[in-house]
């Protein structure tokens, strides 16, 4: 950093960084700051370079931690940045490129230092480092000023109030990244944090009034999917050789930064993800998920979760109830379109789950859509390619289907939507099939995969629950879907046939089947009684044929009993009343134990330009590679 740096590896030797972290106090008005904020090293463009930047930052931080109690330079750096943010909006309107560029660089330095500080010390120690001033060793400000809280509030205001232009895109992304870093102390604790200084800042005091505005801004950033400006064209125009130093440096740095954005660069594990086209949307969504999943304070519910669960459509003119202090309005059509288009990422699927489960306005709107196939098909594709997805992504996709199938209107309408040429379904050519039949095929395929590979009982139970919810509305099933249901049912009847050996078979075929089904339901086989009871009358002959292929005395007895009661193998079953159970998704008592590690694993793997040493991570297990 500063005009003489040439590479990341040289940073610990850089004279400006050495002065910042050294024993000399630097005044807020010193020209040094303008020199420090004039970057000249190429921005990191890979996880390897981000790791090098982290290691270089650690070296600088060690010196700063030792000397800052005497110099107060961290506080001075923060105050210089804060003074600049107050003029940022006007600078954007006036197209003051140099001012915005240097302000971004100041924030980048703070973010790098803050990330290492949070990893290496407690929040209380961090708070003290922002309070030290140039006095005797270890002295700090005696007034009520809390620079750490002021910095966080400044970031919130920067995100919500700065107009999004080519020249402000970069600093907007950096501000969101800095907020993620602010909250990253969770990464270094095995247990979910119930109390935190940063949480208190966000849920109380001057940050609280910005809650709904921040959530709305982050959501619109996700919806709009704004791409970064073309490399090297948004900050300064190209300069001829010998042009001003700052102009030439800015162009090179801009090019490097946009390379980071297009590569995704935070972790090699994210390489399998689709190409990142909008770093602003990506960072915004990650920050939103982190905020929504913060734990409630002892006396204050999470206001960001309140905002996400209560916002409504811009076309809804009804007044907000007083019990929803952070409610706002957003365009549901735009939100729906973005959610449909972005389901290839874990974080977009998690957002969809959050909205469907917790925001009744969004759920009602989505279930009333006449183009639900645009939302359901991407979810089915996630489940179909289960081998390529992580288990959490598959689980969220399945829970979304379960929530949708709780609605009878959805279960009816999906059989009326006819799809043409589903190319990603490779087991069989499907030139024409209803959305409902395709959903059945994919869920049964997921069940079979789970039984042979993962053997996850929760995944199995939720698959069966979704099918059971739909079963009462099965209509005009595709022949292949009906075949798969019967085949699956018979496979499990044969698997648990030993249970029937202990049963007494009365003459009534209905009680026989129900007894059989209720016995199997203890093993999660609700599908047998619920699904088959609605299709058995239509496919009785096929079922008898499949059952009789198993030469087992008990099955033969059951089959003969059924046929004897009907009088003919082709006769329809009488219209007996089978139980119609409905399954409803309910979160565990402490959902944060699952969601907080999941969200931070997404941040670790998907955040743009942020790197944490995997050896420092305590919240979740790291892969061996």
TrEMBL record:
Record's keyword terms, sorted: Lipoprotein, Myristate
Which InterPro entries does the record associate with it?
A: Dymeclin (IPR019142)
Source organism, top-level taxon: Eukaryota
Q: Pfam families, from UniProt?
A: Dymeclin (PF09742)
Q: Which family does it belong to?
A: Belongs to the dymeclin family.
Q: What is this protein called?
A: Dymeclin
**Species whose genome carries this gene:** Mesocricetus auratus
Q: Quick one: which gene encodes this?
A: Dym
């Amino acid at each position: 950093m500063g005009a003489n740096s040439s590479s990341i590896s040289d940073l610990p030797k850089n004279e400006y960084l050495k002065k910042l972290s050294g024993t000399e106090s630097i005044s807020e008005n010193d020209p040094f700051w303008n020199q420090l904020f004039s970057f000249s090293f190429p921005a990191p463009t890979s996880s390897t370079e981000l790791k090098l930047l982290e290691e270089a930052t650690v070296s600088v931080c060690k010196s700063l931690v030792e000397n800052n109690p005497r110099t107060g330079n961290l506080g001075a750096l923060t105050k210089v940045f804060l003074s600049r943010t107050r003029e940022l909006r006007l600078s954007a309107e006036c197209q003051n490129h140099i001012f915005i560029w240097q302000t971004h660089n100041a924030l980048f330095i703070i973010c790098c230092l803050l990330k290492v500080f949070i990893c290496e010390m407690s929040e209380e120690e961090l708070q003290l480092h922002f309070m030290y001033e140039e006095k005797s060793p270890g002295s700090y400000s005696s007034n009520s000023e809390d620079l750490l809280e002021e910095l966080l509030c400044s970031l919130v205001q920067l995100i919500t109030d700065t107009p999004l232009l080519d020249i402000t895109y970069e600093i907007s992304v950096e501000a969101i990244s800095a907020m993620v870093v602010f909250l990253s102390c969770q990464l270094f604790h095995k247990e979910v944090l119930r109390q935190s200084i940063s949480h208190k800042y966000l849920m109380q005091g001057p940050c609280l009034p910005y809650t709904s505005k921040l959530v709305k801004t982050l959501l619109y950033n996700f919806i709009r999917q704004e791409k970064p400006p073309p490399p090297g064209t948004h900050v300064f125009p190209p300069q001829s050789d010998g042009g001003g130093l700052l102009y030439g440096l800015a162009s090179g740095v801009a090019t490097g930064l946009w390379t980071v954005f297009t590569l995704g660069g935070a972790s090699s594990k994210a390489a399998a993800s689709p190409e990142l086209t909008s770093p602003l949307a990506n960072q915004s969504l990650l920050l939103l998920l982190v905020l929504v999943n913060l734990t409630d304070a002892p006396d204050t519910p999470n206001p960001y979760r309140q905002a996400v669960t209560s916002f409504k459509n811009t076309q809804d003119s009804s007044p907000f109830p007083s019990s929803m202090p952070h409610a706002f309005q957003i365009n549901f059509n735009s939100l729906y379109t973005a959610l449909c288009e972005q389901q290839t990422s874990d974080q977009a699927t998690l957002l969809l789950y959050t909205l469907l489960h917790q925001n009744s306005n969004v759920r009602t709107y989505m279930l009333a859509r006449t183009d639900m196939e645009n939302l359901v098909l991407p979810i089915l594709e996630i489940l179909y390619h289960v081998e390529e997805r992580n288990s959490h992504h598959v689980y969220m996709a399945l829970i979304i289907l379960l929530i949708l199938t709780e609605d009878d209107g959805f279960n009816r309408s999906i059989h009326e939507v006819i799809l043409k040429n589903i190319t990603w379904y490779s087991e069989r050519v499907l030139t024409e099939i209803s959305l409902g039949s395709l959903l059945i095929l994919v869920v049964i395929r997921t069940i079979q995969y789970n039984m042979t590979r993962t053997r996850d009982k929760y995944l199995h139970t939720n698959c069966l629950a979704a099918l059971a919810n739909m079963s009462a509305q099965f209509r005009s099933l595709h022949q292949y879907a009906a075949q798969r249901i019967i085949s699956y049912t018979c496979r499990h009847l044969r698997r648990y046939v030993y249970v029937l050996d202990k049963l007494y078979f009365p003459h009534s075929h209905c009680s026989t089947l129900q007894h059989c089904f209720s016995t199997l339901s203890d093993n999660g086989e609700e599908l047998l009684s619920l699904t088959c009871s609605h299709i058995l009358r239509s496919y009785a002959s096929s079922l008898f044929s499949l059952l009789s292929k198993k030469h087992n005395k008990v099955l033969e007895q059951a089959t003969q009993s059924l046929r004897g009661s009907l009088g003919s193998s082709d006769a329809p079953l009488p219209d007996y009343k089978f139980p119609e159970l409905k399954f409803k998704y309910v979160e565990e008592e402490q959902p944060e134990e699952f969601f907080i590690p999941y969200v931070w694993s997404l941040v670790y793997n998907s955040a743009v330009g942020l790197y944490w040493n995997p050896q420092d991570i305590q919240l979740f297990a790291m892969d061996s590679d």
